[in-house]
Amino acid sequence: MSVSEKIVSDLVANNVNFVTTVPCKQLAGVIDAVEAHDDIYHIPANKEDEGMGLCAGAFMGGKRPAIIMQNTAIGVTINTLVTLTQYYRMPLPMLISYRGELGEPVACQVEMAVHTKALLAQLNIPTYHFHKEEDAMEFDAILKHTFMCNKPVAVLTDASFWQGY
Amino acid sequence: MIRSEILRDIAPVISNHLVVCNIGLPSQELHLIDDQPSNFYMLGTMGLSSSIGLGLALAQQKKVVAIDGDGSVLTNFGTLPTIANNVADNFILLIIDNGSYGSTGDQPTYAGQKTSLTAVAKACGCENVIECRAEETAGVLETALAGDKMTIIVAKCESGNIKVPVITMDPVVIRNRFMEAVESQA
Description:
The complex is a heterodimer of chains A (165) and B (186). In chain A, helix 1 (3-13) packs across helix 2 and helix 3 (48-60) packs parallel to helix 4. Chain A is globular. By secondary structure, chain A is an alpha/beta fold. Chain A has helices at residues 3-13, 28-36, 48-60, 73-86, 107-122, 139-149; strands at residues 18-21, 41-44, 65-70, 92-97, 127-130, 152-157. In chain B, strands 2-1-3-4-8-7 form a six-stranded parallel beta sheet, sandwiched between helices. In chain B, strands 5-6 form a two-stranded antiparallel sheet. The A-B interface holds A 18, 41, 43-47, 49-63, 65, 79-80, 82-84, 87-90 and B 20, 40, 42-45, 47-60, 76, 78-79, 81-82, 86, 171-172, 174-175, 178-179, 182-183.
């Protein structure tokens, strides 16, 4: 089982059935796996805050949502995370590509990488960092934790985790 | 007619349906006119009424009316292609288009100038877009609710506000009673 398939199989095992995505090169495999799975309604969003709105509605409609996006999206979504997801106490697993870490070829990505963990910490968002493939073993527990505590939870996945891209 | 008069007109039409209501004055006005557990009031997050409404409609079977404004749709323009390409026939998006940012002091929007949200929605691929005058809104909405077809309604009205108190209800209370309404309604 590829790491993308393992992630999607954990989503399905935790009844996560509504997934919105904004693409990143690192996430292409997992987005394909989400799209391919019959038990997940995959709804691509044009912007990450829009995706979080879709997830909020889906949650209130009885679905278990998740969002897949790049770390640059933290800059886009702070208002939505604070005034929608957190204010109304809604669970939201966020699988995030952590661009700008070791192996990154695009210098500009480092500019957002240096702010990513600080912003998540400032927002009091529980944050996990997948650096090695075996770190994905925690994903199942992270999903359970997210729906237990009704919070947005970040899973940062860096280039080493995806073994280059 | 101004927005609050449209809301007064449509209140009896939407009172038994799930409603997601836009941030600011629209939510405050609806709350004043006809507070219902089946109303989800947005207390923040400008622009996402249509997205929350679509997510809700896709997640369950009951009809959903998302009340939005021209300024908010302009803020979240990406919502229209997403709606067009993820058809939920239990979803009605009502855009109350008064050509202004009402909650912030009636500054003009581009929708009140050269930009037609009706034309934009159609160009984005939305198949059932109806533009109507303010006075026609309740009737158009009633017909849309009686059908089983995703509908975008652009209700053109005048700019202007009434004095309304802010909503002091806790967001978790709003969310909880709304989710109970989602589960319990016939």
